[in-house]
């Protein structure tokens, strides 16, 4: 049995924005990116509180996935909104890399980034039938807060050690 190669992760850069839009399309299950409920996760990227990590193929440097968070206002919340001081997470992996550990590496990198930036928590929304993602989020310290419309809202408390 061959060991898996590591999944290098680096901070997101302005040049990653096009790839992040592609990953948002995947995360939104191919809903139109023109939908304001979807586009709010990247419109005007680079404002205070925005942060991203990108996973790269260790052999060639091609992008394998992206994860980012953004603070959402009370008057324009996202699907995983908890409060105006808790950034919402978006995470997606290119289809042929799913199930290889890229998502976990991205999420751990994003949690580390959020802690280093002084955030106390992160939240997200996940389809309730996406059992693999729910298990990953729980392993990384997220807990289910509420459900509705086929979605779980989950939150990770970054002030306590936990998760993988």
TrEMBL record:
Xref: Pfam families: Acetyltransf_1
GO terms for MF: protein-N-terminal-alanine acetyltransferase activity
Occurrences of domain N-acetyltransferase (ranges): 7-159
Gene3D superfamilies linked to this entry: 3.40.630.30
Transmembrane segments: none
Annotated SUPFAM superfamilies: Acyl-CoA N-acyltransferases (Nat)
InterPro entries for the chain: Acyl_CoA_acyltransferase (IPR016181), GNAT_dom (IPR000182), MshD_Acetyltransferase (IPR050276)
PROSITE patterns for the chain: GNAT
PANTHER family (UniProt xref): L-AMINO ACID N-ACETYLTRANSFERASE, N-ALPHA-ACETYLTRANSFERASE RIMI
Name this polypeptide is given: N-acetyltransferase domain-containing protein
């Amino acid at each position: 049995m061959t060991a898996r190669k590591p999944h290098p992760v680096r901070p997101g850069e302005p040049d990653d924005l096009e790839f992040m839009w592609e990953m948002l399309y995947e995360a939104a299950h191919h809903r139109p990116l023109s939908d304001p409920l979807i586009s709010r996760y990247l419109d005007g990227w680079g404002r205070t509180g925005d942060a991203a990590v990108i996973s790269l193929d260790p052999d060639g440097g091609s992008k394998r996935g992206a994860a980012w968070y953004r603070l959402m206002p009370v008057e324009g919340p996202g699907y995983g909104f908890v409060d105006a001081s808790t950034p919402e997470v978006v995470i997606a992996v290119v289809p042929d890399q799913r199930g290889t550990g890229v998502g976990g590496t991205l999420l751990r990198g994003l949690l580390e980034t959020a802690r280093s930036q002084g955030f106390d928590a992160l939240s997200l929304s996940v389809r309730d039938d996406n059992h693999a993602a729910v298990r990953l989020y729980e392993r990384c310290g997220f807990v289910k807060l509420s459900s509705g419309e086929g979605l779980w809202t989950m939150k990770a408390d970054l002030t306590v050690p936990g998760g993988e």
